[in-house]
Amino acid sequence: SGSIEGLAEGDNIILEGNNQGYWYVIDTIHPSKDGSIKYAGEPHGYPDIFRIRVGESSVYFPIDSLETVTVTATAPDIAANHTLSGSPQAVNLAKVDSMLTASAARNGVKAVVTDDNLKRELGKMILADPAGVVSYYVISKSVGNMPLFNPTTSVDHRIIGAVANSYAQLRPNLSLIHI
Fold first, then answer.
1. Measuring CA to CA, which of 36, 69, 70, 107 is 20 to 30 A from 53?
2. How far is 140 from 131, CA to CA, in rounded Å?
3. Nearest-angstrom CA–CA distance, 85 and 83
């Protein structure tokens, strides 16, 4: 649920899911006249990352089974102008996106993947809950067409391995996919 302010008449809000790194359309959400949105779907039974998209701007959010996440955003750039609430995972995912945006603003998009301070902070978040959906999101994230955590870098490989091992132990029926 939530609201998106500043929508132009005819703007579509597209709800998308992810399958093996490819986004697919689940549905189009039609906002009320005041921009409020509400959507409910069948629970997956496992945590996953979804996104809503307005034009080329997207907000990513986690859903774990029967949760309700609230998205509040302002168009047209909902990626830069949004908040998430409703679950600890949603708040943490919003924090991750905020950290990535701040790093890109300071150093440029290409420098985000080499920002040691950012990756250290993200690594701490991941190791606090390596089997969590936000950890999965972070290790699968690409910035400027470059993986944020690169499996060919030894330090990054260890972080990815921690998440993979946690998923193998705690969520054996799920496979890690690339977002």
1. 107
2. 13
3. 7
Annotate 72-108 with three-state secondary structure.
EEECCCCCCCEEEECCHHHHHHHHHHHHHHHHHHHHC
Radius of gyration of the chain (CA): 16
The model's pTM is: 0.85
CA distances in angstroms from 143 to 24, 64, 70, 73, listed in the order given: 20, 25, 25, 21
Helix (H, G, I), strand (E, B) or coil at 139: helix
Mean pLDDT, the chain cut into blocks of 10 residues (179 residues total): 90 88 91 90 83 94 87 93 93 94 93 95 95 92 92 92 87 56
Q: Which helix (H) or strand (E) holds 145?
A: none
